[in-house]
Amino acid sequence: MQIQYILKQTSKFLELDVECKFNYSVKTMKYDRQKIADMRESGFSYDQIAAELDTTRANISSQISMMKKQGWDITRTIKWTSQHTQQLVDLRGEGRSNLEIAELLKVPHERVKKEASKLIQAGVLESIRAKNAAPTRVKKLPQNYAVLYLLYFPAEDFYKVGLTTNDVATRFAGSPDYVICDEYEDEVRVVVELEREILHNVRDYKYVPESTWFLSNGATECFLAPNFSTPGVQSQQLKLSDLI
What we know:
By secondary structure, the chain is α+β, with helices and mostly antiparallel strands. It is built from nine helices and four strands. A hairpin with a 4-residue loop joins β1 and β2.
């Protein structure tokens, strides 16, 4: 009888312990979920939330997916202020790329691109093309000669390499704003070979522009900043020699 009484009491204790742990787990989950939702709305990335809650990115991703299925509104909202705008203008004036600015301001790259595009359209940011464009050629290239160019497009933060038998300004009339990073003039056969080598070297950094202008203007020649280029070089200072 005594043994049965002990077993019965132990069973009740275990059930109570399990119930308490379950209730605590549920409460903790609800708290964490609300915190996740709040942090996401404040602009936190998955990695930042994981670091804050001392867990892994995979766990946060799984939790957010489950929350979305259960009807939670998980929207990442970045509170963009007038201070952000001024910092964007100042940093662009220093020649910083959108990606560099995003890292400095600790905001998503996509948000910086969007805000920079708005400022360019509103005329707040000076046209980078007007500021950096090279002088127009006064004469045509010699026969069988071409120009190898390297351009930087700040609105989407990517590069384009290519060749033309005209000047760059004529070749890119109507394109999004760009910066001429470098040019090299030589015989067509030499320029073609150099272009082929560069495109091979940056093959792992290919980028598909969002602008529809590139659909018929060399979209396959666009790429992001390669990590083998000279360390510390700002976007507008990258040269053709860095890619060969």
